[in-house]
Amino acid sequence: MSSFLILYGTGEGQTAKIAERIAATISERGHEASAIDVRDRPDSFTLEAYDAAVVGASIHVGKHQGEVRDFVSENRDVLSGMPTAFFQVSLSSANEEKREEAAGYVESFVTETGWHPDRIGQFGGALRFSEYGFLKRLMMKQIAKDLLTEERKPKSDIEFTDWDAVDAFAADVAAFVEGRLGDTPDTTEDSAM
C-alpha cells in the first residue's frame, strides 16, 4: 500500500471536488490517499511523508493559483524524486475548440515551475452562478457562452466535469505508481490467509 498526497488549489470548489474524487478512487484500490487544500496544510505537513503526489489547480483569468505554483516551485526537487501527476480544471478543457488553449495553460505551469509530472489530466470545471454577484454572473456568461446551451440554463449552477475521465485518470495514476514502486495492494479477502 502506498500513500498518496492529492494537493490542490481551488477557487470555487470544483477542484476540491475533483481532488476528493481522485482520493476516493485511489483509496478504493487499497492505498492511503489524502486530499489537502494547499492553503490548509497542517503545521506538521511534509511532502516526504508520501510515496506519490498528485497536484491540482484551476484556471482563473488565465492563471493557476499562486499558492499551488509556489508550492510546486519550492518542492520541485522532492516532487521530481517521486511518482507525480498534475491535473488542471478549466472551462477551456470542457470546450472542444479551446482544448489547445487549456493545454497551453499546462505548458505554462510546467515552464514556470520547472516541474515535469509523470501524468497530466485536464478536466472541465463548473459555473457557480448561485455564488456570483450580478457583474460576475454577466462576465461568466460571456466567457462560457460557447458552453451554455438550452439544456444548460445559465441561471443554475452547471458542472462540466467528466467524472468518468476523472476516475480513469485516478486509476491510471494509481496503476503508474504501483508499477513504479512495485506496490500493488492485495485487496482480496483471501490474502490474509
TrEMBL record:
Domain of life from the UniProt record: Archaea
The Flavodoxin-like domain, residue ranges: 4-168
PROSITE patterns: FLAVODOXIN (PS00201), FLAVODOXIN_LIKE (PS50902)
Pfam families assigned to the protein according to its UniProt record, in alphabetical order: Flavodoxin_5
InterPro entries documented for this protein: Flavodoxin/NO_synth, Flavodoxin_CS, Flavodoxin_dom, Flavoprotein-like_sf, Protoporphyrinogen_IX_DH
Cross-referenced Gene3D superfamilies: 3.40.50.360
PANTHER family registered for this protein in UniProt: PROTOPORPHYRINOGEN IX DEHYDROGENASE [MENAQUINONE], PROTOPORPHYRINOGEN IX DEHYDROGENASE [QUINONE]
Name of the molecule in the record: Flavodoxin domain-containing protein
Gene source species: Halobellus rarus
